[in-house]
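Q: My labmate handed me this sequence with no annotations at all. I'd like to see what the chain might look like in three dimensions before we decide whether it's worth expressing. Could you predict it?
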Amino acid sequence: MSDGAAGIDGSAERARAIAAAGGLEAALAAGALPAIATMPLVEALVLGLLRQGVRKYLAVFGHGNTALGEVLRIYEAAGVTRTWQFRNEVAMAHAATQLAWQYGEQAAVVTSIGPGALQAFAGSLVAASNGVGVWHLYGDETTHGEGYNMQQVPRPGQGSFGALTGVMGRSYTLHTPAALREALRHGAATVGHPYKPGPFFLLLPINTQPAAVGVNLAALPGRHAAAPVACADDQTFAEAAALIAAHDRIVVKVGGGARRFADEVRTFVERTGAVAVLSPGSTGVLPDAHPQNLHVGGSKGSVSGNFAMEEATLLVAVGTRAVCQSDCSGIGYPKVGAVINLNGDLDDLTHYNRTVPIAGDIGANLALLIAALPQAGRWSAGKAAWLADCGEKKRQWGLLKLSRFAATAPIDPVWQRRVMTQPQAIRVVAGFAKEIGAAKLFDAGDVQANGFQIVEDDRPFDTFTESGASYMGYAVSALMAAAVADRPRYAVAFTGDGSFMMNPQILLDAVEHGLKAAIVLFDNRRMAAISGLQQAQYGAEYRTSDGVAVDYVRMASAFPGVLALHGGDAPQSLRAALETARGHGGLSLIHVPVYGGGDPVGGMGAYGSWNVGNWVARVEATYLRTAI
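A: Here is what I predict for the chain of 628 residues:
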């Protein structure tokens, strides 16, 4: 019997000892486990991740991870870990990302070698783009050097997959089993980064997985929560306060990094007489009706948000990475001559010229900046005029929204009848979700673009819109996080027909794992976001629709346990379907035909600039003249 096999014989005993003691630390303290033991590398990895707080695994097993699968089987039987099997690695990566993003829980993504790992790697783009820490464990080619392994990157050379994954985040190949402790340190620093976490890729060569390794269990790295670090330079805050005093027209761009500091953002905005403009992912940081909340701004934006960006002279950037659609490809602030930037990431902190950078924890630094401001008093005449102008634009935006909600759409060319527009249907679903306290998850595309213009959140983390990578199929896949979470929250996925067909595996996984949630499928039989862009730029659509009529209700009904419903063509029928879905004990899918023609009432409109297509020359010429 090999050393690896001998190690597996002791795995069940170790797992039972950990379970009986109530955890790894307790087992070590009680002497139920020896401090130093020999075991298979993959068991040592499971124990190391246990010290990191990882007890959940989302997996697609294959020949590239059978050794890890066996250890997980043993540890689940003892009640130490749990594994959820999936049928698509992209969907699995999305679920793990949402679990960390929404619930703050860590799960490890487990795939085999080659195509499965590439699928999960593609899905990790969401975690990288949105700053979410996730462990990715992939099988990899053997270190023995016997020739090509099936499904490896098919080229001579060493560490090809490690080089690939290292582009997306930090990566480590366990070529040497004894390097596990160092690998876990790298992973903990990446997944648990206080300002900009991301995916960490741990590659497991097939032949080192079962290899016996001596492990000091007490020395396996634990998870450390770094205390907030604030800027220690009083002069920086004095300089920022002087800028705030010198400018009347101040816009605060609230990025996703500001969501945990809603109280500080609100206090800052109210103290300074500034207005807040939101990114798609930061709705709710200020209540929707707050007079200084100018709503979203950017390439899609809003009447009010984009007005504030275009007319402000001072920009206060809070937790934003200035993605192209958020700052109109760099030309969203034509009159801004100075910037105050609060961020923990140096690259994002110094994105703009003429910046007073305030590095460190956003909440701690906002508190210090507020303390550096004069005591609250009456705003200057200039600030009062600025707020009045912005308030008028907020009023205009509200009236435009109401007009879209009340509009009568023309006969739809696909459905050959009047159906709801996306603004009308999204408003019904978003309002229902708000009433019942459900989380809203938006898929990429036209549903997402209209959605972040329509939602009326009063607190952060009620809406998750994957605008970092705009990954089609994310929302429906991410619903699975609720089936894995310790304290799940009812969620509604807003998806289009194009996004849904990217990852329909949720219909199976939801039934298998007992997910209670709802999918609302807004069907216009096209990729309307791109169709609209083509029309706006070139006056014609091209290859963004199809002639295949899919019966999504019938499709979903093929999965026992999924409740498939027609949403109808009116708000009343859609509301009734939502209420029926809410009472269902599993996953529901509501199909809603929506208008997809060229009439402006079909969407909320676009108000900014974007460096794409035939707009490039104008945008780049404008960027050349920008001060920041």
